[in-house]
Amino acid sequence: MLGIPTVQDRLIQQGLHQVLSPVFEETFSNHSYGFRPGRSAAQAVRQARSYIEEGRCWVVDTDLEKFFDRVNHDILMSRVARQVKDKRVLKLIRSYLRAGMMEGGVG
Fold first, then answer.
1. Going by fewer Cβ within 10 Å, which terminus of the chain is more open, N or C?
2. How far apart are CA 107 and CA 9, in angstroms?
3. 39-85 pLDDT, tens per residue?
């Protein structure tokens, strides 16, 4: 289960978030709304309604609440390493994953 980060951990995680979010933002699907700057759940619902009005039959809602509890850390880190080349940052991210203290909105 996820641990409770200290104030220092939260500060470091917020720094990682501010630096890494723009790096990964451009790789995300335009159809993704969660934890995205300038996007909201209300926008996702409006888009889903639009799809239904167009006659589409499926709308997928994925909840990533337990993602960091279940994700294979080696696979995740290999994907992160495709965008992040600084070994120190990768080591820091891996240490947070091992400690169970990654916040859902980071990265």
1. N
2. 14
3. 998 999 999 999 999 999 888 888 777 787 788 999 999 999 999 99
Q: Are 9 and 106 in contact (CB under 8 A)?
A: no
Smallest CA-to-CA distance from 105 within 45, 39, 34 is with 34
Rounded-to-integer distance, Cα 28 and Cα 49, Å: 21
CA distance 18 to 98: 21
Tokens of 2: 């996820």
| Helix locations, the chain, DSSP H | 7-25, 41-53, 67-70, 73-83, 87-99
